[in-house]
Structure prediction request, 593 residues.
Amino acid sequence: MDIVIAHYGLDRVITKEECTATLASQGNNSEVVFIDFEAGHAKLSELFDLPFENLALAQQRKFVEVVKPILDQYPAAYLHYFGLTPIPVAFHFGCLVGNTHPYTIYQWHHKQNKWFSKIDAPSEGYNFQLKTVNHPLEKQKGKGNVIIRIGTSFVIDPQSTHDVVIHPENEFDIELVTTNVDSLFNQHNISQVVEAFQQILNSYSNKLIDREQIHLFISSSAGLPFALGTRINSNIYPYIQTYQYDRIQTPKFREAILITKEVNDRVVLTDEDRKVAATVRQQWEVQLQKQLKPFIKMITGNRPDNWLQTVCETTDEYDLVSKRLKSPWNAVAHIGDTSLKVDKIDLLTVNVDEGFEYTEKTNSWQLDDGFLSGLKRRLEKDVNTDVMQAGRLFFFHEALHYSKSGHRLTKEIATGIGQFPKVIEEADYQADVWGLLTEYKYCCLYEPDKLKYGLKEFFCNAIDTAVETMWSFVDTGNELSSVQIRSMNRFLNWYWQWVLIEDLPGKGSLDAIIFILFDKPVIEFAGAPMELRSHRTFYKLNNRNTRGQQLAVFANNRVRRFAPTEIDEIVAGFMQLKGEKIKTALKSFQVML
Prediction:
């Protein structure tokens, strides 16, 4: 059995007819299974600005749904790869397919307008010859980055790569004596480049065992990146950063798709998952249009002096808590100044990287199926959490972020914002508090049953719902091997506040709760190994050596630092995505204070 894969995404469809005609012209009339795999539809002029992380997520899910079952059904099948996609997309697809099936690469000849697996050399007397690659002779210790440049169409200027990867520890070049856009005119030439790449990977795994990340720069025709990607085993090469090139940009390369083991471990969505997601998406849209918009109009209709006035139930209540309204809380926008009053949810877009995206031009929210189905699954485990409340808290939080009167966290500013963890931590905390208090006012008006057992229980339950929403973004159904440091800080902040609120006497009061909420905790975890991925810093959680793991907090004008007896429970809580373990450990810390 032969399998034909038409992998396209450059504003040109690859049809079954042209693929089978190409095979027939080479005397291959075998029975084939045809896989139509569209991975976008970009023009060449658009490549540099493509949302590569979105494309990778959509491609990974489509691969699991469409390609993997066929590869598993025919383990001895021969692959015929027809590729016309951006280089990072082709490489990522090769990583997904792997090295378990033999294949032939077919490429599009732009001058002759035909697909070929073998063709004449680009010019008479052209000699395909690789330059010698220098490999390390001994093992080299130490962290650092590794650059691999592969130039078969054009020579890649090392300085252009140094503009984005500063001071790499090792550099490898796979170059031709004479580069040419049609240099890979047969399978033997492709195989030589792939084998040279494999030799570099072998040096990386055997001689550079402490190096952290491979940065891969490729200048070649479309088929080669797929073939290179098939050589990647995520257990051995866990972090490979690919790049997109544009000669008129400064710098000329930009980060595209980061190949990680975590991406490959993402949860596979079933048909039932997608149905659940579609239901939640529709319910949230109805809630946005039928409940939230009238709510916003009601509480802001009489031109409030400030946002806290909009969330208090009575004038007496506001008079009591307004003394807490000091900088920076007194300058926060109220909900009537956000776009939420004119927003809508895109009901058709179902694959969105990072879980969601907001488009200012259309005032529309795109919500990912994995985010929605995973959130519903997590919330169903606790009778005190609620998917509709999660939707409100989500939109309240993000509305303040995106508002021009609020945080002005536009798409341009938000891209790469993870490089500034302290800044985004402050903005996230303020948006969380703002959302919780806005939710309090909403429930006073529309869902008073949530308040029947008192404010303490209401806010603890609402915080649980909000934090479960945060967990759903990283929940793949597996234990976490690492966690982004700013994410860990956000979880610790809210579990700390949850414990403080739970410890209030009686049923709690709004004044006491606002006093806690307006005092952002300063709490940090330390002692686990750290690693840098795509400008984001992570803690490794599966480290056996827990000696030295500690918590530190600045509270009551004092710095306290120690290793609670339950420090292992904090790490276990993050690995297992279980907040109750983290709460238990933090309670012991607060008792010490």
